[in-house]
Model the fold of this input.
Amino acid sequence: MHTKNEEDFHMDYSFLTKNGTPKKSRVGIVGATSGYGYTLLAQIAQVPLIELRAVCALSVEDCQRVLLELGYKKENLVICGTVQQIQTAPSHKVLILADYRLVPETDITALVECTGNPAVGSGLSEAALKKGKNVYMVSKETDSVCGTIMNQTALENHCVYTLVNGDQPRNLLDLISWGRILGLDIICAGKSSEYDFVWDPDTTEFTCLNDTDQPHEPMPGMKDLWHYRGPETLRQRAAITAKYRSVISADLCEMNLVSNVSGMAPACPHMHYPVARISELADIFIPREDGGILEKTGVVDVFYNLRQPGEASFAGGVFIIIRCENEAVWKILAGKGHVVSRNKKYACVYLPYHYMGLESPVSILLGDLMGIGTNEGCRQTAVMAAVAQEDIPRGTVLRVHGHHHSIDHMVPELWEKKDAADIAPFYLLNGMSLVRDVKKGAPVTLGDVNLEGQKLYELYRRGLALD
Done:
């Protein structure tokens, strides 16, 4: 299959149904019972061009329960524990697999990897690609370590490896490719962090939105900081919201993926995370000499969205900041309400959404039916480091856990490749024991852990070596 980049198609998706062939995607999902996988399972049932063929998760019972909950008929489900059972199963049945290693043995055309486990996801994806099956990578942790070599493996095996729409990295990469094909000068590309900061001017109540809890407090000081006057406003906002701000592993991991595909460098190791309103973005993510916060351009970054209760959310969406090349053109566009900087030199283009599995079927269809998705130029532009927040002794086992997939006592940083030759990628470290002490403020290096026989490290090393 000839693979193409996202720049090779326009946004009229109806052409997918006009190709004159009855071909459909036959999808297998690994990590299918919760979160992203669940939203994708729910949506696939609504897409005529996709057939669900296989599901796999930690529990066969959970797979069966979720499929029944979503309206699949029990008589159309079959549990398979061996290759022979797969080969003899009727072609119209949904296969529930007890072992993820069996998924590439099925007759799927599309593997969707949702486990969030790099050791599992990398081996599974490589096996599928080598069998000529397309891989749609949801697990950003896996891609941050070995996405580079996976893109190359897809190219060599004439199939597709790609990130999926519905999560910020692919949505942002599509927006970047849109800007580039139009010849726009992209100064910065980024996303909002997952949860909004909401301030009520009537009550002065400040609320930090999140999934499980919504801490709040009176914050009268925000009144004087509501209107952006320059970087000093950001410093003051950061100070009064300090307890709600942190460097989030998931955010930096997503920017790692965008950096590797786009070639855009991290704006700074921690990302700037300004507390900002949407209308201010074109005044903030611009060079310092123009009143912004960037020391360099062509970078990726993250912000916290600040809004009032009645205002629409950025919803963890994505943006690009572009240079306004023609004063007359941008005067017209500013008059239509687009976000243009006060100095009229920059503008913000943004997509305030990422609908998880709801939009991922588009990526699957573009890959399976059109061969679109593989980024053959993907290179390890940035490496996500794990930096010790305190002295950590030899023998400590590092474990990724929690909602944001973090490691205890480690803060993530996103380093340019040129500065990261001996840095161990953050998500390579899961389950590894330190063989040396790591001092506070130091990154974990490749020499601080035992990498002998680690397949994930071998994939990372091969990707790092690509020109």
Notes: The CA atoms of residues 142 and 345 lie 38 Å apart. The two ends are 24 Å apart (CA to CA).
